[in-house]
Design goal:
365 residues; alpha+beta; Ribosomal Protein S5, domain 2; Alpha-Beta Plaits; 2 domains; four-stranded antiparallel sheet
Length: 365
């Protein structure tokens, strides 16, 4: 019998490029979902039909049922053919947990999540595939969120020694709005928040593809270099000891570290004022967070700046890049009264838009 599962994309409210620094993030799962339908085979083959990667833009549907086909054997050693051979790595990490996968599956995968646009399309693809396989073999960890996070992280990042963190996996698997503390990176503390932002989120596709791995590496390396001689950003913020240190390191590293410090302070301010955060204060925080990502880490683009400026000219309260940056999607935070005018003007400039809402995490449909 076929089983269908799904998992959501996410917005990062606060905390891009803070998770791998053992700091904190605030995420919001949204109602753009990746779907996988699975049934068993007996010949040891995994045959995957996945939405063609050319269907990559926000709101672009797979009406013609255009799929890429991927196939490999699971009843023998699985060898990676590239550094992002994620379906094979997903099977390998499940096998490493001691589960028998030898008979194979048919899997059909479809998604409304834009590809290569900072909307965790790769992470959600891996999560939904792993969840589908665990459901098909009735694994005892199929509903264990923490176990799913570790499997997905290992399949996407650890297996290929890539520079990412766990933010996307946690945001998608847990759903809702989450505060995640990475003080202990192997055991992040996830808290579901119940305070709902008072406003509307508009997702916008800049139509610029991005190299996520390159962007992550370029954003991560200067901060890591800047942190070589100090305990952590967390300590610097709590002790207010960063000004003297910042003056002694190279400009590039100093700017990147300043951005991380300030964005961490913005997040702490949001968390300490959850019950009293207003529409205006949230928008102001998002604006400031984006400025740090743009000026300190160089993560914005001309198209994203054009989108945000249009939104602000028509009354938006806040907005920022979404995800690692360097292209892809951004989002606008605004009041109900301003939504139609903002969408009209952004789409007039040639950028697809979509109003998004808070969504449930990974699930069986």
């Amino acid at each position: 019998m076929s089983i269908t599962v799904s998992t959501p994309s996410r917005l990062c409210l606060f905390g891009e490029h803070l998770d791998y620094l053992s700091l904190e993030v605030v995420t919001m799962a949204i109602d753009l979902r990746f779907y996988a339908t699975i049934d068993k085979r007996d010949d040891g083959q995994v045959v995957i039909h996945i939405k063609d990667s050319s269907i990559a833009t926000l709101n672009q549907k797979n009406n013609k049922k255009k799929y890429e086909i991927k196939q490999f054997a699971v009843n023998k050693e699985i060898v990676y053919e590239s550094n992002r051979d994620y379906f094979k790595s997903a099977i390998n990490v499940i096998k490493k947990k001691g589960y028998d996968i030898s008979k194979g599956f048919n899997v059909t995968m479809d998604s409304m999540i834009p590809i290569g646009k900072g909307m965790c399309s790769s992470s959600t693809m891996i999560i939904v595939f792993i969840k589908a396989v665990l459901e098909a073999i009735d694994a005892d960890i199929k509903n264990d969120k923490q176990a799913l996070v570790e499997l997905a992280y290992n399949a996407e990042v650890a297996e290929f020694n890539e520079p990412g963190g766990k933010m996307d996996h946690i945001a998608s698997i847990y759903g809702g709005i989450c505060h995640v503390d990475f003080k202990v990176f192997d055991k992040p503390l996830v808290t579901k928040l119940t305070t709902i932002p008072k406003g509307i989120f508009i997702l916008v596709d800049s139509k610029q593809q991005k190299d996520t791995i390159k962007v992550l590496q370029n954003a991560k390396d200067p901060v890591i270099r800047a942190l070589l001689n100090i305990p952590s950003i967390r300590d610097m913020v709590s002790n207010n000891t960063f000004d003297d240190y910042l003056s002694k390191i190279p400009t590039k590293e100093s700017n990147a570290l300043k951005a991380a410090i300030d964005n961490y302070k913005i997040l702490l301010d949001f968390m300490s004022n959850q019950s009293t955060n207003t529409h205006e204060s949230l928008g102001k925080g998002l604006k400031k967070h984006h400025k740090n990502l743009r000026d300190g880490l160089g993560l914005s683009t001309k198209a994203i700046e054009e989108i945000l400026n249009i939104a602000y000219n028509f009354g938006a309260t806040g907005g920022k890049i979404n995800g690692s940056g360097g292209g892809g999607c951004c989002y606008i935070f605004t009041s109900k009264e301003k939504v139609n005018a903002i969408i009209k003007e952004i789409e007039k400039a040639g950028y697809p838009t979509r109003i998004v809402s808070i969504a449930e995490g990974v699930r069986v449909e």
